[in-house]
Predict the 3D structure of the following.
Amino acid sequence: MANPFEFIQQVRSEAAKVVWPTRRETLITTGLVLLLVVFTSLFFLVVDEVLRTIVSLVLGFGRSG
């Protein structure tokens, strides 16, 4: 079993290598994620409406004007 103090030293050494993203990188990534969520939501809205219309027509529940 490894020495606990050596383990802690290795953990600190690895933690020192961590590079945090800049504020700009974080904002850009967040913006891209939000944009992708909006596009994905719109895509599934369209797919849902198309499938709902097809099912309504097939089952005879279509709107009669």
